[in-house]
Design brief:
This protein is α/β, with parallel strands linked by helices. It has 20 helices and ten strands. The chain folds into two domains: 309 residues, Up-down Bundle (ABC transporter transmembrane region fold), CATH 1.20.1560.10; 259 residues, Rossmann fold. Helix 3 packs antiparallel against helix 5 and helix 14 crosses helix 16.
Length: 644
């Protein structure tokens, strides 16, 4: 049973050739997705577009191919009205050239333009989605690097949902703006052809175009604020729905479904109002924008007809012009659109950059060394700590020495800073002053990977993933043998109830493990940390929800596990404290008493007070847990199973 002894350093790999690795493997050793080839330019002085350029350039082959193909297709299409003109003049009016000559050319041009159009469109969409994928990966990768203080500050749910629409608008602009510019350049070519046929007629045909452009801008201007409104109201509705689903147990326990529905109804009404407003504006503008060019057509027929009657123009030109006018319309409309898209993309990119410019605070310092063969000697040397500069000091000149292999209980009133002490060990936060030293190394001189592999921490509110219990226990050591997983489950007193579940270790726990009781979740969390077999173990209120009887049954195995490793137990309960060799009492940012339980009971009145208060709180918590379990069983219509 390797779990009770340290894991052998020599790990056998499936590869035959010797691989050079660090002895500390991150949980995921291989990336499942292709990493983005580029990231944004870190120079904050540059414009948003220049900062995004590396991402666009990393797709340049496909993107440029797409633009070239699009240009080719459009240039070919521009030839068609001209051919039509010649066909009418030379084959129908003058009967000099057989009509089949033009039909063949038009057919060939149309086929080539079609193929080019297909390639251009496919590559453009691929570029767009690949850039979207890259942006998402870049943001997500960045978020995983961020440290705890960042997550204390931001609302992570908002962060992700906002990122989605921002990524979309940046991606749209980066891909579609160049493509629209290509279309506009072809419009210039078309206008050149019109001029070459007849200058006055070309100018007359263009009369409505500035109006198309201005109206397009006007339309976007009216729609723009409304579409922002739609975005933010969609997010509101999503937040309400999300909270109601995640917080369904609270909602139902207060029988507040009706009130929540009313809140949702109001948000949905506001969203609907914005959508209707949007439809109204579009309905008002679209017919005008689309039909304005028909006026151009009328002008062409009128003025062109007059020219034909007076023998100054051949009749085929009128047909060619009417086709050109239709071709010119789209670029004029879209020109207004790029400006709006640009404004939106600029605002979106600022929000994305805000996240990406945030620097992780807890990182490996250059030249950081691995913590190898950790003996578990811990020193807090005059540590000061506060969560942010304007918060009070939680640890104030805090000194503590824990010897290798010692089991120490840390006791103190709620909110005194016990969990904070625990969080400084694996560098969830860095000390504001003083040093935290493990085996003679300042923790800031060690690699995070080796440090966190050496410090196993079990929290009182354990987070479980919605996978099987086996996978949850193996989270920190995914290649573990099943025998080791079972041994860890056994040592944490979880094996018994797991076996009683319908599928045993393969039972999938509901979201965040809600199908299990608090005590069951805690035992799985303990097993998860034990499997990693860390030389330093921190149990932060990790057994608070486990029944005293159940806890006593696992004391034997816990004691055995604590042998040979340094253990810090944060607890309120006397039975848990009894596992420790030494008890430390914390108050006002310092250790105020240090000794055995019996010594402290005799000499320190505060200790007895804290213990009494702790027992009381535990009673209340246990009561709450029982009530919650009963409510859950009632709601789900079946029992959660197993003892608490
Ligand atoms: N992430 C955080 N950001 C700001 N303040 C915090 C944070 N976590 C805890 N605190 C504050 O620090 C103090 C100590 O908290 P904690 O170490 O959790 O206490 P304990 O574990 O002893 O109950 C409390 O006053 C708490 O409000
Ligand atoms: Mg705590």
């Amino acid at each position: 049973m390797t779990i009770l002894s340290r894991r052998p350093d020599e790990q056998t790999t499936e590869h035959d050739e010797p691989v050079q690795h660090s002895p500390f493997e991150p949980v995921a050793t291989t990336a499942r997705y292709r990493a983005p080839r580029a990231t944004i330019d870190p120079d904050k002085e540059k414009t948003w577009l220049r900062r995004a350029m590396p991402i666009v350039l990393s797709h340049k082959k496909m993107f440029i191919t797409s633009l070239v193909m699009s240009f080719l297709a459009l240039v070919l299409q521009v030839q068609i009205p001209k051919l039509l003109e010649e066909a009418i003049n030379n084959s129908l009016v003058a009967r000099r050239v057989p009509l089949s000559h033009y039909v063949t050319i038009v057919f060939i041009l149309a086929v080539i333009a079609g193929i080019a159009g297909y390639i251009s469109r496919y590559f453009l969409m691929r570029t767009a989605y690949e850039m979207e994928f890259d942006l998402r990966n870049i943001i997500y990768t960045h978020l995983t690097k961020m440290s705890f203080p960042f997550y204390d500050r931001v609302q992570s749910g908002q962060l992700i949902s906002r990122a989605n629409s921002d990524i979309r608008s940046v991606q749209m602009y980066l891909t579609f703006a160049p493509s629209i510019l290509v279309q506009c350049s072809v419009a210039v070519v078309a206008f050149g052809y019109m001029l070459s046929i007849n200058v006055p007629l070309a100018l007359v045909a263009m009369i409505p175009m500035p109006f198309v452009y201005l109206l397009g801008i006007q339309m976007r201007k009216s729609i723009f604020p409304v579409s922002w409104l739609i975005q933010s109201r969609l997010a509101d509705v999503a937040t309400i729905v999300d909270e109601n689903i995640n917080g369904v147990r609270v909602v139902k326990s207060f029988a507040a479904e009706q009130r929540e529905l009313t809140t949702l109804g109001k948000a949905a009404d506001r969203l609907q109002w914005a959508y209707i407003k949007d439809a109204y504006i579009r309905a008002k503008f679209t017919p005008t924008v689309q039909n304005l060019p028909q006026i151009g057509l009328a002008l062409v027929v009128l003025f062109g007809g007059w020219l034909v009657v007076h023998g100054e123009l051949q009749v085929g030109a009128i047909a060619a012009f009417s086709l050109y006018i239709v071709m010119l319309q789209a670029p004029f409309q879209m020109l207004g659109m790029i400006i709006m898209m640009g404004q939106r993309a600029s605002a979106s990119s600022q929000r994305i950059y805000e996240i990406l410019d945030e620097v992780p605070t807890v990182v490996d310092r250059p030249g950081a060394v691995d913590l190898v063969d950790c003996t578990g000697d811990i020193h807090f040397e005059s540590v000061n700590f506060s969560y942010s500069p304007d918060n009070p000091l939680i640890l104030d000149d805090f000194d503590l020495h824990i010897r290798p292999g010692e089991t120490v209980a840390l006791v103190g009133r709620t909110g005194v800073g016990k969990s904070t002490v625990a969080r400084l060990l694996p560098r969830f936060y860095d000390a504001t002053g003083g040093r935290v030293v493990i085996d003679g190394h300042d923790v800031r001189d060690l690699t995070l990977l080796s440090l966190r592999a050496s410090v196993g921490i079990v929290l009182d509110e354990p987070f479980l993933f919605s996978t099987s219990i086996r996978e949850n226990i193996a989270y920190g050591f995914p290649n573990a043998d099943f025998a080791d997983i079972e041994a860890a489950g056994n040592a944490a007193g979880a094996d018994g109830f797991i076996r009683e579940l319908p599928k045993g270790y393969e039972t999938v726990v509901g979201e965040r493990g809600y199908t299990l009781s608090g005590g069951q979740r805690q035992r799985i969390a303990i097993a998860r940390t034990l499997l990693v077999n860390p030389p330093i173990l921190v149990l932060d209120d990790a057994t608070s929800a486990i029944d005293v009887q159940v806890e006593l049954t696992i004391h034997g195995s816990l004691r055995k596990l604590m042998e040979g490793r340094t253990t810090l137990i944060i607890a309120h309960r006397l039975s848990t404290i009894s596992l420790a060799d030494r008890v430390l009492l914390m108050d006002a940012g310092k250790i105020v008493a240090d000794g055995t339980h019996a010594q402290l009971m005799e000499t320190v009145p505060l200790y007895a007070d804290v213990l009494a208060q702790g027992e009381e709180e535990l009673e209340i918590r246990a009561e709450e847990a029982r009530a919650a379990a009963a409510a859950r069983a009632g709601l789900d219509g079946h029992d959660a199973g197993g003892p608490l």
